[in-house]
Amino acid sequence: MASFSNVVLASMAFMQVVLAGSPKTCSNPTLSCHNTTAVADTCCFNAPGGQLLQTQFWDTSPSTGPSNSWTIHGLWPDHCDGTYDSNCDASRAYTNITAILQSYGKTDLLSYMNAYWVDIDGDNESFWEHEWGKHGTCISTLKPSCYTGYTAQEEVPDFFQKTVDLFKTLDSYTALANAGIVPSSSATYTAAAIQSALKASFGYAVTIQCASGALDEIWYSYDVLGSVQTGTFQPAAPVGQSSSCSSTGIKYLPKSGGSTVTSTSTGTKTSTTPTSTPTGSFSGSGYLNAYTGGSQDGCLISAGTWYTSGTCATYTAAASGSGFTLKSSKGSCGISSGTFTCASGVTATVFTASNGLLAYNGATTFYATAVPSGSTQATVYTSSKSVSVTFQWESI
């Protein structure tokens, strides 16, 4: 797995894309929480909430979200000392977040939020309204006056898209699992071990929170160079925030079950939303869903690589001899130099199926050097590597 810091650096260019509308152009921006004198232009400098926290939940009673993923709590603008403002603009405390996002064509974003930004009581809309009203309205660069040719409520999709984009680079579940910290009904862990695992991935210390002795929140801190909309988020050490966890005996309880989410995009399925067991034989059109440890963990995309944060590729399976061939939009799929590859010029391999799983030379187990996360993709190998993965067909 690539470290969080590497993933963040690799995705900086993506995060600098204007998410909606036309925010003010920022020349020579200043990094928040690093100024020695007051900065007048708070459309290009986040103040007073200069440290932005991407916060995550681990809900188990009741369980929310996929069983192998943390979920989103919010994006909070803290002062550079741990204090914060809240509910900063009652006139923009919108109560129709879903409708606003739909009006800006953010259907894919809404699908993701309904899978990963979920309310413990099942009322996602109210949860989003709360996070926007309490925290979003306090982000200085999201004020309507910070937009050129402002369109009503366009700061809302900027806020939610940015929060989701950050979350996608922060795979807390895998970071902990890589250090042997996994959900358990009986095991306990130390705060130092949890912090060490997360710092190894993120690059900086994070803030952890516990309830009734069980880990249930992680806060990742960033300073921002420029505006929230178009600036660069730089991982940072937390300033002023404190943990509520004890030093030892911390529980990390398992979730019960998992979420089932269907993408609203016609003809596509978002790989980050686990589904029920895929069905259908290898014929016609379908997805190749990846399974590790008995649960779905992404899928194959069109080049034949394994991805957990993108749109699953549609594959076409056609009978051939005693098995079938596979083809994606990139071209025929085959085993080339020990890797699963789909591209023009690739000689199609005749695959078989065993118990509903893709098989090559009779074997259903494929391999990768790590479980992909964020914007990374994993090459799929036929020879043994550190991670084992199987692929099951889902007819569409």
Automatic annotation (TrEMBL):
Protein family according to the UniProt entry: Belongs to the RNase T2 family.
Subcellular location: Cytoplasm; Vacuole lumen
Alphabetical keyword list: Cytoplasm, Disulfide bond, Endonuclease, Glycoprotein, Hydrolase, Lyase, Nuclease, Signal, Vacuole
Pfam families for this protein: Ribonuclease_T2, RNaseT2L_C
Keyword flag Lyase: yes
Comp. bias regions, Low complexity: 256-278
Signal sequence, renumbered to the chain: 1-20
Listed PANTHER family: RIBONUCLEASE T2
InterPro entries hit by this protein: Ribonuclease_T2_eukaryotic (IPR033697), RNase_T2-like (IPR001568), RNase_T2-like_sf (IPR036430), RNase_T2_His_AS_1 (IPR018188), RNase_T2_His_AS_2 (IPR033130), RNaseT2L_C (IPR057328)
Gene Ontology cellular component annotations, sorted alphabetically: extracellular region; vacuolar lumen
Function recorded in the entry: Rnase which modulates cell survival under stress conditions. Released from the vacuole to the cytoplasm during stress to promote tRNA and rRNA cleavage and to activate separately a downstream pathway that promotes cell death. Involved in cell size, vacuolar morphology and growth at high temperatures and high salt concentration.
Active-site residues from the entry: 73, 131, 135
Residues of the RNase T2-like C-terminal domain: 281-394
Principal localisation: cytoplasm
GO molecular function, one term: RNA binding
Protein name: Ribonuclease T2-like
Residue numbers spanned by region Disordered: 255-278
Taxonomic source organism: Mollisia scopiformis
Enzymatic class: lyase
EC number: 4.6.1.19
Biological process terms in GO annotation: RNA catabolic process
